[in-house]
Amino acid sequence: MENVILESDCLMVVNALLRLSVDVLEV
What we know:
By secondary structure, the protein is mostly helical. It has one domain (about 1-25). The chain contains one helix and no strands. It starts with a helix and ends with a helix.
């Protein structure tokens, strides 16, 4: 179960980084 939670957290972090990178590219 811990692995599933860690994976979900990683996905959230990756999504956040992608959004930040997109904002930077737009600016």
